[in-house]
Design brief:
This protein is an all-alpha fold and 207 residues long. The chain has one domain. The protein has eight helices and no strands. Helix 2 runs antiparallel to helix 4 and helix 5 runs antiparallel to helix 8. The radius of gyration is 17 Å and the shape is globular. The mean pLDDT is 93.
């Protein structure tokens, strides 16, 4: 199995688990679990492949991805009630998924020979759009849009780390490892240490 395939499989399974956890918070039925898990698992990668004209889209070429997402959803359907805090588990699983999906997006763009700007964008898209779709469909406040939350910033910084390593002549594997490390470190810092971005505040005009 290639490194890119391993990243895709890992991101699909972990993002599917987060989708199923959100489905459990929305108290959906088993079909709803499978749908939300699959949407979350392949959403970002699908948009990436469509934009890059990658044919076939990764899960169309290998339907096993959907099978894995459905399997993850079924497991969560029967075990979610065992978690002490489903939302806390969701946040940390999502952080792990982000740290795997961003390098997957970067790897695809690099393999296709795209310039640094496209590599950055594809890393962000692959990491963020699946979770955004999940939260919007389940009527949750999207994690990517929460006030001051480090999320898109983590994906962008991770993609930037990969681009920098490649620019300095580093091996692709080292670049992807740096990407995953930076992405997860920033997201974990946001969750565990409260790292935030400044938010805009509007004040009434002076009289």
């Amino acid at each position: 199995m290639t490194l890119l395939a391993a990243l895709d499989y890992a991101s699909v399974v972990i993002f599917a688990l987060t989708g199923a956890l959100v489905a459990s918070r929305a108290q959906l039925d088993l079909v709803g679990f499978v749908f939300i898990a699959s949407l979350t698992a392949v959403g970002g990668g699908t948009i990436r492949d469509v934009l890059l004209d990658r044919n076939p889209v990764f899960w169309v070429g290998q339907p096993l991805f959907i099978g894995l997402a459905a399997g993850a959803a079924i497991v969560v359907f029967f075990t979610a009630h065992l978690l002490e805090s489903r939302y806390r588990s969701l946040l940390w699983l999502d952080a792990c998924a982000l740290a795997v999906a961003v390098p997957a997006g970067v790897a695809v763009a690099v393999a296709l020979g795209h310039p640094a700007a496209i590599v950055l964008i594809m890393g962000v898209i692959t990491g963020c759009l699946g979770g955004l779709m999940r939260d919007v469909v389940c009527n949750e406040v999207p994690l990517v849009l929460k006030q001051g939350e480090l999320y898109v910033t983590c994906a962008f910084a991770g993609s930037g780390a990969a681009v920098l390593v490649l620019w300095l002549g580093g091996a692709p594997g080292v670049a992807l490892l740096a990407c995953a490390g930076v992405t997860f470190a920033l997201r974990a810092g946001s969750l565990a240490l409260g790292w935030r971005l400044p938010v805009y505040k509007s004040f009434p005009p002076r009289q």
